[in-house]
Design goal:
19 helices; Rossmann fold; single chain; alpha/beta
Length: about 475
């Protein structure tokens, strides 16, 4: 069997000069599918491996199975170039130079990581692994997973040694939905290989395919912790913004004025950078990654406080939002049990159709518990996804959604909502209708000029103003 030594790695690098590096991506979901389409659009031969028939059918038909700005265009380009294939057959990987693993790593009910998809994908990959391949793990994982789970499975299934017969590195995926393509080109890629040769190949891969800046860290475990540190920072930062917003609302000041001014302070090598408050943090990353950190600490008898704190603050925001809606109704002497509440936006953030862990779910549930009649609309979420999320009425368009509303709650401020004619919408609502700006996406004065009463978490104007 050929041995994958540093010398051979160098030879491999020169072969990649001709831009024909062939790539397999295991897990062709939101991140894997977007990255695969982008790489294929640039001319690299890509095979996407997924076990979900729906994903394979969509990509085969040249359709995006999820909402991501710019994805349709790169997918069309990949189709034109005939550089993208999708399949469930792992043997198709055999001719690839580089294999990315991007399967999902969800949480169980006790906040523990579910690594079954990763184990299964790694086992299947191990059986078709070829000498000289570079394996890049990109799924977000608890630290030590590359070394203690992925590496042994690959070595046992293939009979080869990582860092010697094949390269192995962890490169966290740090893009966020709605900005994936931009992020793939713009965000520096962190690389932690099991040895120097693996890191060198990984750097070469990212540099020559996406042309991104790379940052090499000593080992895969460091790279795994980088991803969790980033997301813990974001979740904690939003929790701070949310608490400043709650306090600002209580004392009658505009939280965004506080935050903007606070952010003008230079600190360390950067600036204070408090993010925006909102009706809640959802999605597939910030709701789980802090728990990966917390679990790792608990396994070593360290009771980490920041993951618990940020999760507790951010998880209460849907309930805070519902309380705001109820106070707004009471401010106009309206009975919640007789009220109609319109939800604009079911996804977890602006301009995406992803409803995973969306705050809209608990918000709708709690409004219904108060007896409110809820009608929802989201142009980016399929009817099936919407129905899986709520038993409430799903409106066919924004006009139907706001019909007879006492409160219009914009929970994810998609472009269609930001550009809507608010005055025309107001004509369809009841008298004294509130507009709840869930993600501070609107100018309060324009909302008021359209005839709504304006409220927002952290937007100063609230019930009673
Ligand atoms: N979504 C994001 O914004 C984001 C951002 C950064 C990092 N991440 C991380 O990237 C990873 C993937 O996230 P995603 O949002 O793309 O998830 P996703 O659920 O959209 O995609 C995962 C895909 O893996 C497939 N899969 C599961 N097991 C498989 C197997 N054994 N073989 C082949 N395919 C298999 C699934 O069918 C699915 O299509 C996760 O670890 C996530 O934490 C996600």
């Amino acid at each position: 069997m050929s041995r994958w030594t540093l010398l051979e790695a160098d030879e491999r690098l020169s072969r990649w000069d001709c831009r024909d590096v062939s790539i397999a991506i295991i897990g062709f979901g939101h991140i894997g599918g977007s990255m695969g389409s982008l790489l294929a659009s640039k001319g690299f031969p890509v095979v996407g491996i997924d076990k979900a028939a729906g994903i394979l059918q969509a990509f085969e038909a040249g359709e995006c199975p999820f909402e991501e700005p710019g994805l349709a265009a790169v997918l069309a380009r990949a189709k034109e170039r005939h550089t993208l294939r999708v399949t469930a057959d792992y043997t198709e990987i055999k001719s690839s130079d580089v294999v990315l693993i991007v399967v999902g790593t969800p949480l169980d009910e006790d906040h523990g990581p579910i690594l079954d998809h990763l184990k299964s994908a790694t086992r299947s990959l191990g059986k078709v692994l070829q000498p000289g391949m570079l394996i890049l793990l990109k799924s977000t994982v608890p630290p030590l997973t590359t070394q203690q789970l992925v590496r042994p499975i690959l070595e046992e299934a293939s009979g080869m040694e990582a860092g010697v017969d094949f390269g192995l590195a962890f490169s966290p995926e740090r893009v966020d939905e709605g900005n994936v393509l931009e992020g793939l080109y713009g965000i520096p890629v962190v690389v932690g290989g099991v040895n120097t040769a693996s890191s060198e190949l990984a750097v070469e891969f990212w540099t020559r395919t996406l042309g991104v800046e790379t940052m090499v860290v000593p080992d895969p475990t460091t790279a795994e912790l980088v991803k969790l540190a980033d997301n813990q920072w974001i979740d904690l930062n939003i929790a701070l913004a949310n608490e400043i917003a709650l306090l600002s609302d209580a004392i009658g000041v505009d939280a965004m004025e506080v935050i903007k001014a606070a952010n003008s302070l230079p600190k360390g090598q950067h600036w204070v950078n408090i993010l925006y408050p909102s009706i809640g943090v959802g999605g597939y990353c910030l709701t789980k990654d802090p728990w990966f950190l917390h679990r790792l600490g608990a396994q070593r008898d360290i009771d980490l406080q920041t993951p618990q704190c940020s999760r507790a603050v951010n998880e209460q925001m849907p309930s805070v939002t519902v309380q705001r809606v109820i106070s707004c109704l009471h401010a106009h002497q309206k009975d919640p049990a007789q009220a109609r509440v319109t939800i604009l936006g079911l996804s977890f953030k602006n301009d995406t159709g992803d409803t995973r862990s969306t705050p809209a779910g608990p918000i709708i549930q709690m409004l219904e518990d108060h007896g409110c009649k809820v009608q929802a609309y989201d142009p980016l979420v399929s009817e099936n996804q919407a129905r899986a999320l709520t038993g409430s009425a799903i409106a066919p368009d924004i006009q139907a959604a706001v019909e007879g509303a006492d409160v219009v709650a914009c929970l994810s401020c998609h472009e269609e909502f930001r550009s809507a004619n608010l005055s025309q919408l107001k004509e369809r609502t009841r008298e004294n209708c509130w507009f709840l700006d869930g993600r501070l996406g609107f100018d309060p004065l324009s909302v008021k000029a359209a005839g709504f009463d304006y409220t927002a978490i952290g937007g100063h104007c609230h019930a009673g103003d």
